[in-house]
Amino acid sequence: MEHILQGFRDRIAAANADGKPLRIVAGASKDWYGNALAGEVFDVSAWRGIVHYDPTELVVTARCGTPLADIEAALAEHGQILAFEPPHFGAAATIGGTISCGLSGPRRQAAGAARDFVLGAVLMDAKGEVLHFGGQVMKNVAGYDVSRLLTGSLGMLGLITEVSVKVLPQPAAQYTLTLPMDQTEAIAKLNHWAGQPLPISASAWIDGVLHLRVAGARAAVDAACKKLGGPLMENATAFWAGLREHAHPFFDAPVLWRLSLPPTTPSLDLGGVQLIEWGGAQRWLRSEAGAAEIRAAAERAGGHATLFRGGDKSAGVFHPLAPAVLQVHRNLKAAFDPRGIFNPGRLVQGL
Predict the structure, then answer these.
(1) Are 183 and 267 in contact, with CB atoms under 8 Å apart?
(2) Which end of the chain, N or C, is surrounded by fewer C-beta atoms within 10 Å?
(3) Pair 137, 217 in one domain
(4) Shared-domain flag, residues 160 and 178
(5) Count H helices, E strands: the chain?
(6) What percent of the chain has pLDDT over 90?
(7) Which ranges in 132-254 belong to alpha helices (H)?
């Protein structure tokens, strides 16, 4: 396998010497995400395979081109899961792309985001040097935690060749309740329940119905179902998978916005249709409102808005950064990739 890494080094060194940008690709399942694609295709899908997995350690280490489905299948054999429930958005999804995009699924509200589960990473920088960050245990970082920094960086800092991720056991019991209510009541209820010891692992309000997934020890789940009330949902597994993979009819839209807001934020009047997840903190929006209006509303609420799919990307997919934060991004890019060859502009326009 070493010849594959050497091929990566040679390709990166040539691109760095010539100043020719590279577009890192493995499964290409999320090519639509982020700002416009640029650079020559740099296919890293050959660097695949689970490097280390001992179920008793609750950690899996895999190469960047490893299919996400392969990792989940290996975990399932031992009753374990990727707790942040990452979306695939295609059968070719890989662990490298999953971490680079930093996206999390419905379980994020209870378990945490993708970056919360990244314990270590191996990065090949613009010089072709292999850099190791973090490790395979929780308390492994002294100083700046670069392994988590790489999560959601969309490849702007270099090629993530390997990643170690914490895993968790599958819940012993899991049910989904359905409670009819309007959006205002749903937001209030979600915030009320957030302050109680309830095993809510996911929530979604859509079309006047709040869906609550409770998961954990059977006794706790049974008690929560009795307290929360509402009928049990049939085909709940398919429902949550549809949300995670955006196969639910709601997501069949030419323009889709993702708003990240404080969960107590009241309903935003932006026209269109909304789907609320993560206890009120994530709000999907289908609307004809302009980018400036949507982002201004999100900012007033203390959050930000991302043009998740479709629409006009010329103004930038991600919420504009404050000058000080933008300078941090510039400094990081200059440190890891001074000639700007990795995924230029994908995360931040101009970088």
Answers:
(1) yes
(2) N
(3) no
(4) no
(5) 10, 16
(6) 94
(7) 146-149, 183-194, 218-228, 236-244
Query: Do strands 22-25 and 40-43 pair parallel, antiparallel, or not at all (unpaired)?
Result: parallel
For residues 291 and 303, give the distance between their C-alpha atoms in angstroms, rounded to a whole number: 14
Pair (146, 189) in one structural domain: no
Q: Which domain holds residue 123?
A: 2-169+327-336
The answer to whether residue 92 is domain-embedded is yes
Check whether 142 has a pLDDT greater than 80: no
Q: Which residue has the tokens 């789907």?
A: 275
Per-residue pLDDT at 140 exceeds 80: no
Q: Is 136 helix (H, G, I), strand (E, B) or coil?
A: coil
Mean residue pLDDT of the chain comes to 95
How high is the pLDDT of residue 235? 93
Number of CB atoms found within 10 A of residue 349's CB: 16
Same domain, residue pair 194 and 158: no
What is residue 2's predicted lDDT score, i.e. its pLDDT?
85
H or E element that contains 160: strand 159-166
Task: Assess if residue 316 is contained within a domain.
Answer: no
- Count up the domains in the chain and report the number: 2
DSSP 221-262: HHHHHHHH--PBPTTHHHHHHHHHTT-SGGG-SSEEEEEE--
The DSSP letter of residue 61 is E
What are the Cα distances from residue 194, in Å, to 102, 180, 203, 279? Answer: 24, 19, 11, 7
The helix (run of H) or strand (run of E) holding residue 51 is: strand 50-54
The pTM of the full predicted model, rounded to 2 decimals, is 0.94
Which uninterrupted H or E stretch holds 75?
helix 68-76
